[in-house]
Amino acid sequence: MQTKPYTSLLANKNLFAISLLFFSSYSMAQERIISAGSSVTELIYALHAQGKLVAVDVTSRNSQTEALPKIGYHRQLPAEGLLALQPTRIIGSDEMGPKSTLDLLSQSGTNVNIVNTTPTIEGLLERIDEIAELTQTESQADIIKQKVHQQVNQLEKTIPNKAQQKKVLFLLLHEGRAPYVAGKETTVDEIIKLAGAINPASKSLSSFKPLSIEAMIAMQPDVILVSNRSFKKLKGIDNILKSIPTLASTPAGINKAIITINGSALVGGLGLASLDEAARLNSLLYPLQN
Fold this sequence. Notes:
This protein has helices at residues 3-29, 38-46, 79-84, 99-107, 121-134, 138-157, 187-194, 213-219, 228-233, 237-243, 251-254, 272-285; strands at residues 33-36, 53-56, 89-92, 111-114, 168-172, 180-182, 208-210, 223-227, 258-261. By secondary structure, it is of the alpha/beta class. α5 runs antiparallel to α6 and α6 (138-157) packs parallel to α12.
């Protein structure tokens, strides 16, 4: 006679636990995620969570995301367009904005998740865990992190000694304006270092800053990096050299050593595409090491 209430209570507890599990699984199945920033989007795909995506920003445009709606630039997200998609969550970097749009999303009940943008390997590994937790794909995180470690180890094997390392300068080009140079604490600075080169601007500058003619000549870069977009817009090496006459007094200008880099790999911190660009840059700088 004493067992009935206990059995009933146990059954109720089991039913409650099953219900919680069901609703939790149902909730995740109904997730509608917007990704803002290429480094975030690439990790969502790497974690096999792309089935939850309902839209991405324009920096995430590639063959994988072709079928998804594009919601504008990650720094200038339109509130109405995003709300119309009825997202349950938006994931982006601290570059995501404007704040007014994020506030409206939050007020509407959308989870606004900002992940780290630290432009280092440690920052990337942390971001993998952050996005894995948000998308409940933690089982995939260790696999991706292992691949990251393998890529870094492979790059380290091809780095020449200090005396042979080339000086590489990244220029952010704006037509009609002086170029900006990437200093330390930038994704491209980390890419240059991972590729086994030296960024001469990192000694005196942080972030992106304009550079005087004298300073650029003094740095004597062996190679100039520019984004694919800038290269296409200025229509090639010769036009870039014409637009920046200062380069004629540097080894990079004399040898026409200008290399393009995927601009999307620079958005939102060091990402998986950034590592691919570091490997490609390494092979171009040191072909005999590869």
